[in-house]
C-alpha cells in the first residue's frame, strides 16, 4: 500500500490552496511519491510559487549539522531561495514580508524526534505567518517511526530552544501537520494569536505504520540519517550529542557507531549484559573524518537494531550513557552548547532532554530516575489526542 502524500494531493487538486503568491518551506526531502522535487512539480503544474524557504542543511542538503546553504536563485526552478535556518522573530518576519506572499506552505520530512530541527523551522514560520496575516499550510508526510509509540519528557519552561520549541515528548509520534496544530494551540494558550494551520492530510497513512509500511521511497532527510533504521537510532543516540562521546558523525554509521578514545572493546559486553531489547552491540574501532574526535582513532560499539518494535531508543540511550560514565578510566564529560549562542545553557544535554533531569540523574548514579521520565509522554499524548489527524486502523 502506498501512502498518498500531501504534496501529491495538492498536485491533483491545486484549488486546495488559494492565492497567487505562494512560498514553499522545503528542501531535498520535499518530493512526490515518484521522487520529483515538490518545488519542481508545483512549478511544472503552473502553481503560483514565487519563493523557496530552506531549513538546516540547506535546500539541496549539502550542509552538515548546524549549518545551512546561502540563499540565492534555485537552478532547478529559477525561484528565489531564502535561508531561514536560525531566523526567528522580527528578523524572520522581515524576510517573509519582503516576499509579499498570500500563502506559506511547508513540505519537509521529519524523522520523529523532538530534537530534529525541521519542525521548529516550520513552527517559526507558522508564527511569523500569523503575525503577518498569511495563511499557513502543511503538506503532510509520515512519521517514519510510526504514530502510536511516544516516549520521553517534554520541554520544561525555560529550556525551549531550536531543538525543542514546544512541550512535546522526545519521541513524539506526530506528523508535521500535527506538530503544527499542537504548536498553534500551545501558543494560543500563552496568549499568542496563532491560527490553526491548514493541513493537507495524507491518505492511506495509519499510526501503526513505520516507514517500510508506507510504500514510499526513503530520501535521507539529512546527511547523517541515511536510512529509516538510522532514524530509530537517532531518537535514542541523539542523547550522545550532549556528551563528548562520538555519535558516529564522520563515519558510514552515524548514530550506530558510538565511541571515545578512552573506551575499550569490553564496553560492548557491558551493554549486552544489560539485556536491552531489540538491540545488540559489537566492539568496533573507527576514526571520524569530521565532528568529535575527527582524525583520532576511537574505540566503541556498533549498535545493531534487531527488532524496531522491541527496541526502546531512549531507554537504550540512557543505559549507554550510564555505562560510559561507569567505564574503567572513564573520561566522560557533558558538552556545553557551542551553536546556541542566543540561548546559552550550562549543558547541551539539558536542551536535548528538555530539562537538567537526565544529567542530574546520571551524575547521581540514578539512571532509573531518568528512565521514569520516559512515561511523561503519555500525559502529553492525552493532552494532544484531539489534535491527531490519523487513526491507528
Over the alpha carbons, how many angstroms does the gyration radius reach?
Answer: 21 Å
Give a count of the beta strands, DSSP E runs of length 2 or more.
10
Strand content: 5-15%
Count of runs of 4 or more consecutive helical residues: 12
For the record, what CATH class of the largest domain applies?
Answer: Alpha Beta
In terms of quaternary structure, the protein is single chain
Largest sheet: 7 strands, mixed
Number of domains: 2
CATH superfamily of the largest domain: Uncharacterised protein PF07075, DUF1343
Annotated CATH topology of the largest domain = Rossmann fold
Return the average pLDDT rounded to an integer. Answer: 94
CATH architecture of the largest domain: 3-Layer(aba) Sandwich
The N- to C-terminal Cα distance equals 14 Å
InterPro entries: NamZ, NamZ_C, NamZ_N
Pfam families: NamZ_C (PF20732), NamZ_N (PF07075)
GO molecular function: peptidoglycan beta-N-acetylmuramidase activity
Write a short abstract of this structure.
Helices cover 28% and strands 12% of the residues. By secondary structure, the protein is an alpha/beta fold.
Main features:
single chain; 393 residues; alpha/beta; Rossmann fold; Aspartate Aminotransferase, domain 1; 2 domains; seven-stranded mixed beta sheet; three-stranded antiparallel beta sheet; NamZ_N
Q: What does the model show?
A:
The protein is 28% helix and 12% strand. The chain is α/β, with parallel strands linked by helices. The protein folds into two domains: 6-219 and 380-387, Uncharacterised protein PF07075, DUF1343 (Rossmann fold); 228-355, Aspartate Aminotransferase, domain 1 (Alpha-Beta Complex). A hairpin with a 6-residue loop joins strand 3 (72-73) and strand 4 (80-83). Helix 3 packs across helix 4, helix 4 packs across helix 5 (176-189) and helix 6 (228-237) crosses helix 8. The mean pLDDT is 94.
